[in-house]
């Protein structure tokens, strides 16, 4: 069964009891038990709920995994994974990383005595050299947010296996549609389902997928005891959204590729970050491990003043935090996704005041390009 068919038929997408064409929302906190002497599948919705189970089964199937766990946000999913480590453990992480993950590491995990070393994710030797006797895991995010840098997934997974370490990856940008990390040797896959999996900017959700039963049991425990469960309405909305993910991602990625070429050739744009561009330093690696450049790109203008002029002139993309909706979304990492990262660290990562991130929606490509071009023309006039 191919992916677009899996999105509709690859899991329990229909209600066995009534034949309903979508899984019902089981809006309950508790379940009537047949007997106080015996257990049963569902007892309390923090422990498990049929609507949430259906979503978890669906996402596991899409990632070709055995187990999935749904959380109340992408950060809830990331936190459940990273807080599974113990005091004294050491992790190696990519330096180009989502701001929320950076904040979790530096403001929470360090209080629990979990050490982290950041490396240049594009260099396999840096991953290898950062490993210590107390290292327990390697954490990837590829393509990264917001610079779209690319990590060799299979290469890092091979290093991890040689040293008996767990590998974790944030696969939000690519989704299971374009990149399947479990098949490349990764142990734990994380998604902010808020983004492309749901795809309609009306849900905040996170997912963790694995084939490792021990890791699944640990993540399930974190879900239960920390209470970061995804509500049943949001589970249902996410299942509704993922059914069209294949079509949405194809249109968005097709537009993103054309937009990236236009931006790369525009005199006002200093640099474009998009792994589907042959000029991208990670292009060949990305082509080996993903089937598309994806629907997100970032690009650099000369200054913050140019950024403001450009953003004010745009008419179609909305200016907003987040990404992955049916509408195109323009974000300014300095004041949005990476506002919690100190300026000195942002500068090290390359998150400059001239950097913008564009999540390309499903609008007509020609309309998007025309709008971007007219906004860039305003920048050109302002510069002159």
From TrEMBL:
Keywords: Amino-acid biosynthesis, Lyase, Methionine biosynthesis, Pyridoxal phosphate, Transferase
Pfam families for this protein: Cys_Met_Meta_PP (PF01053)
Presence of keyword RNA-binding: no
Cofactor: pyridoxal 5'-phosphate
InterPro entries with a match to the protein in the record: Cys/Met-Metab_PyrdxlP-dep_enz (IPR000277), Cys_met_metab_PP (IPR054542), PyrdxlP-dep_Trfase (IPR015424), PyrdxlP-dep_Trfase_major (IPR015421), PyrdxlP-dep_Trfase_small (IPR015422)
GO MF annotations, alphabetized: transferase activity
Its EC number(s): 4.4.1.13
Broadest EC class assigned to this enzyme: lyase
Family to which this protein belongs: Belongs to the trans-sulfuration enzymes family.
PANTHER family in the cross-refs: CYSTATHIONINE BETA-LYASE, TRANS-SULFURATION ENZYME FAMILY MEMBER
Protein name per its UniProtKB record: cysteine-S-conjugate beta-lyase
Classification of source organism: Bacteria, Bacillati, Bacillota, Bacilli, Lactobacillales
